[in-house]
Amino acid sequence: MSETPLAFMIVTFVVLAVFFVVDIFVIGRRPHVPSTAECVRHIAFFVVAALVFGALVWVFAGSKPAVEFYSGWLTEYSLSIDNLFVFVIIMSNFAVPKVLQRYVLSIGITVALVLRGVFILIGAAIITRFTWVFFLFGAFLIVTAIKLVTGGDEDEEYHENAVIRMLRRVVPLTNDYDGERLRTERDGRRYWTPMLIVFLAIGTTDVMFAFDSIPAIFGLTKDPFIVFTSNVFALLGLQQLYFLLGSLLDKLVYLPVGLSVVLGFIGVKLIMEALHGNSLPFVNGGHPIEAVPEIPTWISLAVIVVSLGGASLASVIAMRRADRLKAAESADEAGDDESVGGVPAKGSASGDSALDR
Question: What is the C-alpha to C-alpha distance for residues 257 and 260, in angstroms, rounded to an integer?
Answer without folding.
Answer: 5
